Amino acid sequence: MIEPVIVVxxxxxxxxxxxxxxxxxxxxxxxxxxxxxxxxAFFFAPTSFFGQLNSFELIALPLFILMGNLLGATPVGQxxxxxAALWLQWLRGGLAISTVGASAVFGxxxxxxxxxxxxxxxxxxxxxxxxxxxxxxxxxxxxxxxALAMLIxxxxxxxxxGxxxxxxxxxxxxxxxxxxxxxALALAVYIYIRVSLNPAxxxxxxxxxxxxGERMRALGGxxxxxxxxxxxxxxxxxxxxxxxxxxxFGAAGAFVLAAAVFRVLTWxxxxxxxxxxxxxxxxxxxxxxxxxxxxxYLNLVRVPEIVTETLTQTALPDWAILLILMLAxxxxxxxxxxxxxxxxxxxxxxxxxxxxxxxPLWFGIILVMNLEIAVVTPPVGLNLYALRGVCPMLxxxxxxxxxxPFIFVQFFVLMIFVLFPGLSLWLPGLL
Length: 431
Description:
membrane; DctM; TRAP_DctM
């Protein structure tokens, strides 16, 4: 069994020297297949690669990314924050809580956490700092709530997990609603308790409440995008359309909103949005395909079976095994990007999860909740660097310190759904 050790060393070594993750996965997987099957590896590897990508469900991936990028080019994110801030001005810490609400809704619009951090953070952080909010509260609320986009549908990680595991993407979308809303509520409650205990972190607004007419007009800048998301998700949940078909409608609708309603699409801007969408989609699909090569090697040498047999034969109760897995996933998420973590760990851990009697749908939701923590945890926490990019007044060190308490809140909510699996499955079972 020295070959798997060599393969893992090659994988870690390539990642360590800065090689692209798709290259590290593909090269180490190909090496393993070659050691196990000789020249046949050069037949198995392309078959694995194209077989993984030849999936109807994956069509939704570039289309939802395009939809998110088109809406990200509009002022929807800023409008969401302004509307939430106007309606919650009476509440201490209202701006920070508005950030959570705006990020949750923008997550449903874009499906990409980095886009939410950039769109909401660019206006939310300067406004909070200008009104006397602490730097830690301003940065932490934006970075952590931006991760809600990974859980609230339409979610790109759910599409990837569905393609790898065979679980219905529509069921995953439905299953992510309750955890996403509960996590948003938990972050808002934490902010309220924090500013109540330390009022200096969020001075109370002294001016009068804005007139009702002004607050209603603020909703006028977001209803188009919310209606589009409602139609897209409604088509999926009602069975009228598959996720891929709904994604195509969503991308077309987002183009109409950006071009005709908000009028932000010049020819150059359109090409930039398309180029960005192609680049992101291509990178994710490359990782998925190369990870399948690596995963097929692991299956060939029975790594998932060995892991399952080893852990199930221990005297540990199921909850203890799950806790170990959750901690391992959080630690891996600190070092590996979300897409790679899904496509590499799912083939290894899913057999163990099903052997223990848990639902693959539940595991997909739990896995994505782990990734929410990963994107705000250094050194690979992309949300941290996205926030630094749009808010240069904040240092990376400040941002990292600011998210620590929010990470504990996220982990607390994660453990609720780990220990009570029925919460994740209640809404999919109901619908």
